[in-house]
Design brief:
globular; five-stranded parallel beta sheet; 3 domains; 364 residues; alpha/beta; Rossmann fold; three-stranded antiparallel beta sheet; 12 helices
């Protein structure tokens, strides 16, 4: 798991999210369990260790239940999928791609059955209206009883997909960020001296092993922690929007409504509900304590805060962690449409491949 490289005597609270995930997994697997219950195990893990975990699970002799939004990971490990939707759970046998095909086929079949039944109901009701008071009254009453006893197929429902759109500020400077001999870390440098520049509108991806210093670099750039040495400079026109990897809140008892209201007091309740809904936060969760929400719902609240802040330079640290497929697609489309500069730390190549300008693999 690469834990020796992390340092066996390091305090757990000093480790990155990915490093902590590795320690937790190592402890779990050393217990040699018969059944594994893994909740989003690939969050925070780098690509190499996601592949390692997939290989381990495919040869694991016991049973396991995994909750995950990582399609590629699921494709490698699953023999069946239990899909929870609309208050029901349905089991599909096969791989993840088999599940997608079966689900789509069943959805089409359900819609076909619903429409057939609706046509039958409309035809029967028209007959009843026409004949209830005439010579065929007895037949009409019989058909009305049949309709009353009929088990009606519920109308297909569509789940509202989130939509993200960043509020952009014009950007005219050619170079938005210049970094010269920058050393980052906590007391001692984690990386060699960094030299780079980001042009206006450039989309830069940063990858690398867990704990190598990616998050530390971003925290240094947004001045959460001081640089050890060297310097960096943003253009005067730059307004940075930052998404932190860890879902930390000043007060976990606050609701999403209160969190947004505190940050943007001029917004009305109706406007806050609307913004949260567009980000995919469910109505019933808007007034719940934020610490009681799932990681995915908390991530959407964090994204909502970011979307409300005008920006022309985004710095995002693993924003896809916790997000479901629909939210990932919506975020991807929003970043493609974003015309400002972007620094994105991500271990999900499927998320950023094909639309970014440059990939920087630090530590190599």
């Amino acid at each position: 798991m690469g834990i020796e490289a992390i340092g066996m005597d390091r305090k757990i609270q000093t480790l990155s999210g990915g490093q902590r995930a590795k320690v937790i997994l190592a402890k779990l697997l050393l217990e040699q369990p018969n059944v594994l219950l893994l909740d989003e195990p690939t969050n925070f893990l780098d690509k190499e260790h996601v592949e390692w975990l997939a290989s381990y699970l495919t040869t694991f002799k016991g049973a396991f239940i995994v909750v995950s939004h990582d399609d590629r990971f699921l494709e490698k490990i699953t023999t069946c999928i239990c899909n929870i939707e609309l208050g029901m759970i349905k089991k599909y046998h096969g791989t993840f791609s088999d599940f997608i095909r079966q689900k789509e086929h069943l959805k089409e079949d359900y819609i076909r059955q619903y429409r057939t039944q609706q046509r039958h109901i409309e035809k029967t009701e028209a007959y009843i209206r026409k004949n209830i008071a005439g010579n065929n009254s007895k037949i009409a009453k019989g058909r009305r009883k049949q309709l009353d006893r009929m088990e009606r197929i519920a109308a297909p429902t569509t789940i509202q997909k989130p939509t993200f759109e960043f509020r952009e500020i014009p950007l005219q400077a050619q170079t938005t960020l210049a970094v010269h001999d920058l050393e980052v870390g906590y007391g001692t440098p984690l990386l060699p001296k960094i030299n780079l520049s980001v042009a206006a509108g450039e989309k830069l991806i940063i990858t690398g092993f867990n704990g190598i210093g990616k998050s530390t670099l971003l925290k240094t750039l947004v001045r959460s922690i001081p640089a050890i040495s060297g310097k960096f400079r943003f253009s005067e026109q730059v307004k940075v929007g930052y998404y932190e990897q860890d879902l930390k809140w000043e007060d976990g008892r606050m609701t999403p409504m209160q969190v947004i209201s505190d940050a943007y007091p001029k917004l009305t309740k109706k406007e806050i509900f609307s913004h949260l809904a567009r980000c995919g936060v469910k109505d019933e969760h808007v007034t719940q304590a934020i610490r009681s929400l799932s990681g995915g719902e908390q991530a959407k609240v964090r994204l909502c805060l970011l979307l409300l802040s005008p920006t022309n330079f985004l710095i995002l640290d693993e924003p896809t962690n916790h997000l479901d497929i629909d939210a990932k697609e919506a975020l991807q489309q929003a970043l493609i449409a974003f015309s400002g500069s972007l620094i994105l730390v991500s271990h999900e190549a499927d998320f950023y491949q094909g639309w970014t300008d440059r990939i920087l693999n630090i530590g190599h």
